[in-house]
Amino acid sequence: MAIEKIFKDDASEEKGERARMASFVGAIAITDLVKTTLGPKGMDKILQSTGRGHGITVTNDGATILKSLHIDNPAAKVLIDISKVQDDEVGDGTTSVVVLAGELLREAEKLVAAKIHPMTIISGYRMAAECARNALLQRVVDNKENAEKFKSDLMKIAMTTLSSKILSQDKQHFAQLTVDAVMRLKGSTNLEAIQIIKKPGGSLKDSFLDEGFILDKKIGLGQPKRIENAKILVANTAMDTDKVKIYGARVRVDSMSKVAEIEGAEKEKMREKVQKIIAHGINCFVNRQLIYNFPEELFADAGILAIEHADFDGIERLALVTGGEIASTFDNPESVKLGHCKLIEEIMIGEDKLIHFSGVEMGQACTIVLRGASHHVLDEAERSLHDALCVLSQTVNDTRVLLGGGWPEMVMAKEVDELARKTPGKKSHAIEAFSRALVAIPTIISDNAGLDSADLVAQLRAAHHEGCNAGIDVITGSVGDMAELGISESFKVKQAVLLSATEAAEMILRVDEIITCAPRQREDRM
Amino acid sequence: MALAFDEYGRPFIILKEQDQKTRLRGIEAQKANIAAGKAVSRILRTSLGPKGMDKILQSPDGDVTITNDGATILEQMDVDNQIAKLMVELSRSQDYEIGDGTTGVVVMAGALLEQAERLLERGIHPIRIAEGYEMASKIAVENLVHISQKFDFGATNIKPLVQTCMTTLSSKIVNRCKRHLAEISVKAVIAVADLERKDVNLDMIKVEGKVGGKLEDTELIYGITVDKDMSHPQMPKQIEDAKIAILTCPFEPPKPKTKHKVEIDTVEKFQTLRLQEQKYFDDMVQKCKDVGATLVICQWGFDDEANHLLMNRNLPAVRWVGGVELELIAIATGGRIVPRFQELTPEKLGRAGMVREKSFGTTKDKMLYIEHCANSRAVTIFIRGGNKMMIEETKRSIHDALCVARNLIRNNSIVYGGGSAEISCSIAVEAAADKYPGVEQYAIWAFADALDSVPMALAENSGLQPIETLSAVKSQQIKENNPHYGIDCNDVGTNDMRQQDVFETLIGKQQQILLATQVVKMILKIDDVISPSEY
């Protein structure tokens, strides 16, 4: 008798080998997709959105590429998710984590074909990951004590991160920018305090870090364009009609004269409010909400610079920078903390006028102004800077540093290989496979750079047998000393790559069945 | 189709729109039902045990769930068949009642159905089979009580509890750090447990997850975490010895429920109204300040002005806190939820030793920790993990572990795991079968065979020879009269489950057998399936 159908229509079920095949194929396809962006000579991708306008993004950032993909394969979704988490958590290594997970699965596929049970592979992978992590822990360099050295570490990390991006031409310049910006944060990881303003025009080299704060707004008409020793009140209050907030209140009049009276009262109210604000003894007023013409005029009369409609982030940043508080009521001028800065002036970047606050009290926030030929370049530059800033701010908290250029992978691979030799049983195959997956990363880096990967990796392996600082020098196309070349990576990033990739591979390996529900019927709106 | 004719040869209509329905009767119906039940149980069979595999489930919206938990798999499977739905219900009721063993119960039911099919083929009436199963399940449950052991634990001696939770967790993906998670679960349960009354309210344990970090970073917080931040960015991020006002009224002008209008027709009225409004905000904040609160937690939003006044008076506040969280905070801090500002009194404030804001990762993700509360009876388990699916799966695993720990506090009897309890029951049932005269005897034998299928599946999933291993263990149990021998899934070298410290709760096992028998009885009693046909 035929087995009853137990699922709904359109739902599908894949079992055992087929399910495993489906997830391997999906995961490996994703890996191959982002593989070519890895390393300093990695290539970029163009992503065209299906939305209106078919907007184009050109990027090298793994997380951005994967985020934009529409994927139906569940295993591929796991990989995309780990890349996203890597982005949120440490900001960089988004491509590496996917590539490593993919390579682990590729190796696992071979082992499964050789009739090794997935659970055995998993337990082998786990041992190997632990061993690899310990190997890294033994080789980390921590320059927390030595501020001078630590700063040069940060420089190296920033250069290494930026070298695979569009900014690689001016990496020295940008590395300096990002390091300075992060050092200003003084250990905080709140990247919100670093503002990035993109202005097309000029070249990437013209980008600069401003120690002050730049607000992308215009100064009200007839108001001073330059204020020295500014006292700033940062506010979030309605400066339009300031309606009565008591529910159900409404105005009811029976004659024209009354309308005029009420209008007068309203105006009076606003005037009073402005007076109160002025009574704070300020000469600059920044509001989150709109400022109507009438109060603006009043401010102009009082010689106060009024800036309207600064967005919420702008307000928060400004409050942070100038040390003022965000005020909404103005009855007790003595208790409100005002912000201070040395100079407010209108500056021009390219064609646009911006307001520049310099000489601020708290130097935590700063602004990076990016210049570049086109929007695409600027967007990609921003993403690259974001990566570098994330990595640096994480490194400031966890100061352990490793060498780069495939060095950590080779160190791990060597230790894992030794573990494989010591481990009895089938697990040792899995451990060996893990080390092969690790070696795949330097292989891909050199492949992407158009080098003879087999030769280079073999040389590298031989060099590592002695235990040295050898890695792949992509520029000269040979094995070089990473410490001399100044290629460094953050330990935290490497550790996150290793652990999440193993976790994801484990998760996909454990699956032996895929049940897909019928897709939800969408109503056609046409 | 069954048709009846009257004396003139005209057909009676018994079922409405008869020709649009498909109908299965008698043995056909039973066989179809059994096949459906078996199909469901076959899906779950490979998930059983420490070496069980996971399933990927893709929801109608394309979201991916990866899990090993029987109840979750079945719930998300989008099943259409009626009998399959019964099996889903079965697993769900095990989940509600016990929380663990959701896979085992379905596998057991599937095995019982498989055996019943054979008996049906031999011409035994389904009711007789059902009765035989019923008798056998009684024997099995009695045997479970017989072989169960009580063990002692207290607030200080939690090792046995941890061991049991570890058994539960070992079949999940989190088994990498099962000891860590088991300890967390047990500590959480002990913290909220009422050991006198032997009751645990699992609502007091909040399980929160955030992606990022690694599984080892999962921690137990003696307090509450709220996924919110301070309402004003410049409020202090850390408050010691906080006195918390828990409010369910917004910091906004009142909105009376009755429809009303405030008419403004003169300038004076306009001004008085304005003053009143200002005073209103002032009063609200002042009242909170007067009772001595150092932190305000509010279920609703704040008006900008109120927000600034709070900031100005140095009174940190949190807004838009959900109802459930608000209740937990109230319980943890010993405060009362206050619905009106007028009712705010110093006694109603909650107390916490430390309230702090913590940020994660590179995005602006912040959480509020409320710790060292006056009443430590509310705890939070905070899970970290590499990706979203991992966190979800860990949450489910922790839930299972919590349930197991709770069951043990309610009833501290345990049986040994690894299939040893099933094997022992199977021996007992088989021995008892001969005493029953009549056809039921066959059903009882069949039940014993079905019991063997759980250890069989365990052995299969662990890559052992199922029949060989099972028979070896069975003979060992009989020879040494020791019910602790089970399947050595992890290749430890011994199959004495007492040495391996693999326990399960007695009530969990009992429920599995009882529930599985009940559902199978129900399925066997169906002899007619009428369903609307496809078109």
TrEMBL record, chain B:
Name of one Pfam family that matches: Cpn60_TCP1
Catalysed reaction, written as an equation: ATP + H2O = ADP + phosphate + H(+)
Keyword Acetylation attributed: yes
Localization, UniProt: Cytoplasm, Cytoskeleton, Microtubule organizing center, Centrosome
Keyword Membrane listed: no
CDD domains (UniProt xref): TCP1_epsilon (cd03339)
MF (Gene Ontology): ATP binding; ATP hydrolysis activity; ATP-dependent protein folding chaperone; unfolded protein binding
Superkingdom: Eukaryota
Gene Ontology CC annotations of this record: chaperonin-containing T-complex
Function: Molecular chaperone; assists the folding of proteins upon ATP hydrolysis. Known to play a role, in vitro, in the folding of actin and tubulin.
Assembly and interaction partners: Heterooligomeric complex of about 850 to 900 kDa that forms two stacked rings, 12 to 16 nm in diameter.
Family in the record: Belongs to the TCP-1 chaperonin family.
Identification of the protein by name: T-complex protein 1 subunit epsilon
Species whose genome carries this gene: Hibiscus syriacus (Rose of Sharon)
